[in-house]
What we know:
The chain is an alpha+beta fold. Helix content is about 30%, strand content about 20%. The protein has a single domain (about 5-390), classed as Chorismate synthase AroC (Chorismate synthase, AroC fold, 4-Layer Sandwich), CATH 3.60.150.10. A hairpin with a 2-residue loop joins β4 and β5 (about 70).
Amino acid sequence: MPALTYQTAGESHGPALVTIVSGMPAGLDVDLTLINGELHRRQGGYGRGGRQRIETDTVEVLSGVRRGRATGSPITLVVRNRDSRIDDLAKTPPVYTPRPGHADLAGSIKYLTTDCRETLERASARETAARVAAGALSRCLLRAVHIHVFGFVRSILDAAWDGLVSEANWPSLVSPRDASEVYCPDGADGPATKRMCEIIRQAKIDKDTVGGLVETHVFGCPPGLGSTMNWFERLDARLAAAVMGIQAFKAVEIGLGRDCAARPGSRVHDPIRFDATRVGTPSLGFTRDTNNAGGIEGGMTNGAPVVVRGTMKPISTLLRGMPSVDLNTKSAATSAYERSDICAVSAAGVVMENVVAFEVARAFMEKFGGDTVEELRNNYTSFLRLARALPHEAPMDRGTVIA
């Protein structure tokens, strides 16, 4: 069974964004409504720029799906760009004054040019539409094994939603989150939503930008996804890399995150209990008083919900510009302006939700494999059955040791 992987290609102002996803099991129902819904959410959020009024992202499937189901071959997803002008010098002129905080300066020097254009087009967060498409496709797989992903905006500047998210209440938070202009679970008229919108409006008046904190929860994971055997197989490391790879993200936390540094171990580690009434769940009956570990211990899921937070910095393109340098003359200049957002935290939360989903799906496929979705389900069911039946033999009697 090949590993679940994806590759993306395309430029911000090129003709299309292309994603090739390999390793999806045959027979999986591919829900285009789900994928297009995630693409639509990615384009929303208060504070977005003019491009969102130009593009209407929908996915085209070029290979790997027949009559709504995966065939087992690589799935090619295409998102067209309406605003395709990479070769039009009148619309995409050279950029010689790099923006502080963006890839402009480093990329121009790396590729030995004074024109930042080619770097900034590839570095643009427009590329994340392709990753959302891949992540949303992986959610079709997770849904088939009853694993669910829920993401939202936790805070923007000093405006924060302090509500709790749990396995019991997350379904009731989906509608208010979607009704909020900033994807905050307190709804369209909630105090956190209103305050976040006020902050974004003021930033626009000030010709400034703002960032924020986004959060994703994954429910229904069994213990053992990921690995402790190699550092590059640890699920927390893979999640951190996937989230940190989103444009403008500067920090990633699992569970309690950096707050672990301010507490003793007795207030960090989650006590383990056993509840026989929950043996039939993917947690196998093991419960925790808290979830400070964010559902991951030793690089593996532990049966509790996976909790990931990401910090997005303010967008690098400011309407008022910032002090910079003309790369041709080396003289002082004001940074160039490219059409951009005042705040893209809501969209970034959707991207994070979907890259997290992909990494969890990838770990699930590595653990349970299968060329078909039926085989995958059978492997998963067999594992749960064996785990519930532990111990299979007396302790320390796992076979003969040959000297």
